Amino acid sequence: QVQLVESGGGLVQAGGSLRLSCSASGRTFTNYFMGWFRQAPGKEREFVSSISRTGRTTSYADSVQGRFTSSRDNAQNTVSLQMNSLKPEDTAVYYCAARDFLSNDYSYWGQGTQVTVSS
User: Fold this and answer.
1) What ranges make up the beta strands (E) of the chain?
2) Average pLDDT of the chain?
3) N or C: which end of the chain has fewer CB within 10 A?
4) What single-letter DSSP state applies at residue 101?
5) Going by DSSP bridges, is the β-strand pair 18-25/108-109 parallel, antiparallel, or unpaired?
6) Nearest 5°: phi and psi at 115?
7) Could you tell me which of 19, 5, 21, 6 has the C-alpha nearest to residue 72?
8) Sign of CA dihedral 102, 80, 55, 58
């Protein structure tokens, strides 16, 4: 089992920045690819970003490319999502997730943190 706890959400004006953090515990953190997903009201959950086990490789949804940056600190068992130039359409609950390197699925999820961007 892997336990994930997100923090850092909040209310911000359009154009502002927020930094989300996710703390992991329970298993060897470097065994897991980490991802960020979000779900806006009335919409399905969508992929935002992922980061490889070493942190050297990241990927982003087109909608956030160039504005969001994922990073991880394997010594601290944390992953972060730096969100800049926020837009009202970024408003959602953001979830941290973990995928075992032997699996194709994200099996572990945090409880989510609310991000609200006002116009």
Assistant:
1) 3-7, 10-13, 18-25, 32-39, 46-51, 58-60, 68-73, 78-83, 92-100, 108-109, 113-118
2) 96
3) N
4) T
5) unpaired
6) -120, 125
7) 21
8) positive
Low-confidence ranges of the chain (pLDDT < 70): none
Structure tokens at 100: 């075992």
Beta bridge partners of 82: 19, 69
Residue with tokens 């160039």: 66
**3-state DSSP assignment of residue 30:** helix
Phi, psi at residue 31, to the nearest 5°?
-80, -5
pLDDT at 27: 82
Contact 6, 96 (CB under 8 A): yes
> Which residue, chain included where needed, has tokens 């515990």?
25
